[in-house]
């Protein structure tokens, strides 16, 4: 079998220290993802606990507080004003993208660490302000790229780093979903409002193959180009479908597609000088990793892991032990700069 052994990545390979106590969280934004995935993940966590929930709907906040066994429920205004801020140590933000900056600044002002959902914000400038404010207040800022905690991805990253199947040359990736079936049929939703979302296919879904490539290669983009189209009613102001290419600092080329109005699909294929790694599906469910190396072909199936729970435990362990963490705000900022470049290239019809 290829080194490193994939069995070790079925465990939490990053969990190599003694952690005392737990980190208490305020969950800011109580949409379906938070209620259905994050609350149960924290409930099963070793190092994190939910002590506060925040929503614009006070009735919803009280209901989720009961489910999460949280002592405090707040409105957004109460949260920003620091009401009951002694009830939590850190903040998890899962609200419309354009609200992340204000909520992060409020958390930092009250000296709370921040775990913020991706995409980081709607622009690189607003993302930079998030980084700067957290640095000024001396609090940690991490972007919630759960794929970094998927055992399959961590194994592939080590396999590529080992050089066992040569050097990466080209990466192809895709992520798509039918948003009106997956999220809701109403076109009047924040994901299709550019002032709240910053875009649709690219910023919400294209970020998956883009960021995962960065993680696997440990390399950042240096140039990008993209084209989008939006032929369907409801997508007049945002990108419905997108195709984009990226050049990375190590010379690897990436080709990607994303759609908010297509069948559920995701994959990531890495072609190397000696073979190929195919990850499919790449971003949800059980993951098959197929490796072709000369005449050998090996497939390893990773059962769906609770990457969200691992993400919270990792963040909590690093904060409790006062250690650096990743992916931090600077990492998220690189994605936002690349996304802006792709949108700009689509506007001017030239590579950026």
UniProtKB/TrEMBL annotation:
<dbReference type="Pfam" id="PF22725">
    <property type="entry name" value="GFO_IDH_MocA_C3"/>
</dbReference>
<dbReference type="InterPro" id="IPR050984">
    <property type="entry name" value="Gfo/Idh/MocA_domain"/>
</dbReference>
<keyword id="KW-0560">Oxidoreductase</keyword>
<dbReference type="GO" id="GO:0016491">
    <property type="term" value="F:oxidoreductase activity"/>
</dbReference>
<dbReference type="Pfam" id="PF01408">
    <property type="entry name" value="GFO_IDH_MocA"/>
</dbReference>
<dbReference type="InterPro" id="IPR049838">
    <property type="entry name" value="XacA-like"/>
</dbReference>
<dbReference type="InterPro" id="IPR055170">
    <property type="entry name" value="GFO_IDH_MocA-like_dom"/>
</dbReference>
<protein>
    <submittedName>
        <fullName>Gfo/Idh/MocA family oxidoreductase</fullName>
    </submittedName>
</protein>
<dbReference type="InterPro" id="IPR036291">
    <property type="entry name" value="NAD(P)-bd_dom_sf"/>
</dbReference>
<dbReference type="InterPro" id="IPR008354">
    <property type="entry name" value="Glc-Fru_OxRdtase_bac"/>
</dbReference>
<feature type="domain" description="GFO/IDH/MocA-like oxidoreductase">
    <location>
        <begin position="154"/>
        <end position="278"/>
    </location>
</feature>
<dbReference type="GO" id="GO:0000166">
    <property type="term" value="F:nucleotide binding"/>
</dbReference>
<comment type="similarity">
    <text>Belongs to the Gfo/Idh/MocA family.</text>
</comment>
<feature type="domain" description="Gfo/Idh/MocA-like oxidoreductase N-terminal">
    <location>
        <begin position="24"/>
        <end position="145"/>
    </location>
</feature>
<dbReference type="InterPro" id="IPR000683">
    <property type="entry name" value="Gfo/Idh/MocA-like_OxRdtase_N"/>
</dbReference>
